[in-house]
Amino acid sequence: MDLFDSVNDLHTEPLAARMRPRDLDEYYGQSHIVGPGRLLRRAIKGDQLSSLIFYGPPGTGKTTLARVIAGTTKSLFLSINAVLSGVKEIREAIDEASENRKLYGKRTILFVDEVHRWNKSQQDALLPWVENGTFILVGATTENPYFEVNSALVSRSRIFQLKHLEDSDLMEIVKAAIRDRERGYGKWNLEFEDGALELLIEKSSGDARTLLNALELAVETTPEKFPPKDGEKIYVSKITAEESIQQKAVLYDKEGDYHYDTISAFIKSIRGSDPDAALYWLARMLRAGESPNFILRRLLISASEDIGLADPNAIQVVSSCATAFDRVGLPEGAFFITQATLYLATTKKSNTTMAYFDALKAVEEEKTEIPNHLKDSSRDKHSFGHGEGYKYPHAFKDHWVSQAYLPDSLRGRIFYKPSNQGWEESVQESVLQKREQQISVMMEQQPQEVLTFSPNNKQRDKWIKRTQGYLNENLNEIKNAIFSNLEISRFYNILIFGDEGGTLAFESFKRVPEGYVHSNLENKESFEVLNYYTSTLDSVDKPDFSTGRLPETLVTFEIVILKNRFTNFSANKNFLATVNQYIKNDGYLVITQILPSESTRLSHLAEDIKIKTVLEEIELLVYKESTNPLTNWNREDLVTEIETHGYKITETKEIKLNELRVIKKENINQWFNGELLKALEKIDKLDEKDRIVEYLNTHIAEREIEWTTTHLIIFANK
Questions:
Q1: Are 237 and 41 in contact (CB under 8 A)?
Q2: Containing H/E element for 161?
Q3: What CA dihedral angle connects 333, 335, 340 and 342, to 10 degrees?
Q4: Domain 354-445 adopts which CATH fold?
Q5: Alpha-carbon separation of residue 664 from 136, 614, 688, 694 (angstroms)
Q6: What is the pTM (predicted TM-score) of this model?
Q7: 257-349: which CATH number, 3.40.50.11740, 3.40.50.2300, 3.40.50.720, 1.20.272.10?
Q8: In Å, how far from its chain's centre is CA 451?
Q9: Cα distance from N-terminal residue to C-terminal residue, the chain
Q10: pLDDT (tens digit, 9 = 90+) per residue, 457-485?
């Protein structure tokens, strides 16, 4: 036995180390990646991990999550700290993983903490072994992996970004430490002054390690001797709590990710005309030691990029503030930086200077010749006629004359679009008027082209489109109408009902790679086809399809989509009560529904006025018939039902979709021996039946006709 094993009791490790979660049930926070139904949670529980990189600030649970994986997986788990190891340790890990794979057929998970600390050659040493499956890489880094980790490793890994913990998560963590008898302080009666615990949470700034270290210091320095007797009371005052947590350093790296992220937030706040946010990010940068000259350079850029001609004085104000700062320096020089910041944040905005990049793109893509009248005439005017035809603007009224200045290949091209902000608004009308005249001149000067034409070919020009082509277009139009109106995060859970073709399920899955998609199908054949189609994918890496059964209510969904669930309205309207148990309180309900009563009717296809009139009469009766489940409801009924179940409708869209259909003669005969026959009888026009049927069979039946279907898409918030 190791000599030091005997002292490995409760208090040989810091509280933060002792309270590390042992499984996912003890892991608090980061619900966007390990919450119920999320991809990573399913992968960990199913022991189906691929290479991963955890990225986030200190104290957010990256290493802890790796330890949870180590305690869950059946694979061999090896751990390396990149700060303390190099190529030698990598080779040892490779040898152990290779032996484990060869002798026992088991996978190996290699956890590399602070993976960004390795140089390129060290990271390159991992690549072949990740590719051939010798081990699965799990890396942890505080730096943006897209900048600091080998791009080849990044491209072969899933990236999960961990965020600062919410106060509610921190409260759960600290409560767990207080009540845990083995690893925490559950043996004693801890009491906190009002506000003391909240102070610890507030000052820890989302860092669980900082919070637990402060709690440990506050609790273990309060009694004269620690540990006290079991059950003894320990009272932590607000003053003790404040003394126990030091001021957290501003997280900032002048050469790293936070440097660029913070200046980005600063400039975007100015661009968004938010002086409060701009001041906050400015203070954060200066407090962390950012170079004032760097900030002033970015302010100078913003003065032209974001303000530009909306306020031409902006560049002068920032330049003057920069000059004043050079003379004074910090700390008083902060006034000049602040003045420049506030001026830019509160003045009018225009980004028309970005027009330069449109012009640059044209330069790079177009082969152009300088127009002859714009060429220099001082050298070869007589030989080549350079400069001939140029009109000298100062010789004309208002010192302007309409003529072409762009190359022939760019005639009519527009780069600068004046905004209606500030000073620029005063020149907008003038610029646009002159441009209209310029374009007229350009068109007059444009070389004449010989145009060719051919006689109309009716057979060639005939518009023929097969039903399948229509179907694909229609599905895409509905899909685009739904998803263009939803703000979807990568970790959302999405539940879909009635998507028999899988269009919405696969589009959802592409948009939530770290989330979960469940599609409940009514048709067993659809279920079998879609499952077969995805059978080669891992269970955690594809949508979950079901039929006959509903998904477990343990998982809640940010978005629920219902496709054509209310066609038989009276039989299915209560389905919304079922949906309620799945959707989150602030979740979205999307309903896409065909409205049978608003689609093409036979009367729309008839051109004979008398027959059209009779058809309209009998259709009116049929569509009002209360026993017809397809037509005895309308869009108002659907809207009312949605609102009755506690949803607030935020937007509706109506889409008219066309497809080619063929109406068979037997269909027409069947209709006029059924419902339409009864309707003819009610309006006392049975004698018209044969004439109507003959007309429809002659002019409509057995032909491709364009059929319009009305789709209603409803977006509602719970």
A1: no
A2: strand 158-161
A3: 160
A4: post-AAA+ oligomerization domain-like (1.10.3710)
A5: 60, 21, 20, 13
A6: 0.56
A7: 1.20.272.10
A8: 48
A9: 61
A10: 333 222 222 333 344 567 778 888 999 88
Per the CB < 8 A criterion, the answer to whether 442 and 636 are in contact is no
**CA proximity to 177, closest of 231, 218, 216, 204:** 216
Quick one: tokens of 527? 């279920």
Q: What is the pLDDT of residues 325-349, one digit of tens each?
A: 888 888 888 999 999 999 998 888 8
- How far is it, in rounded angstroms, from Cα 282 to Cα 325? 15
Distance CA 305, CA 475 (A): 41
How far apart, in whole angstroms, are the C-alpha atoms of residue 389 and residue 373?
Answer: 5
Question: Are the C-beta atoms of residues 244 and 203 closer than 8 Å to each other?
Answer: no
Distance, CA of 339 to CA of 42 (rounded, Å): 52
Query: Is the CB of residue 221 less than 8 Å from the CB of residue 266?
Result: no
At 254, list the tokens.
């002048």
| SS3 state of residue 224 | coil
**Cα–Cα distance between 126 and 122 in angstroms, integer?**
7
Residues in the chain: 718
Helices (H) and strands (E) in the chain, counts: 32, 14
Q: 580-610 pLDDT, tens per residue? A: 889 998 899 999 998 888 888 888 888 888 8
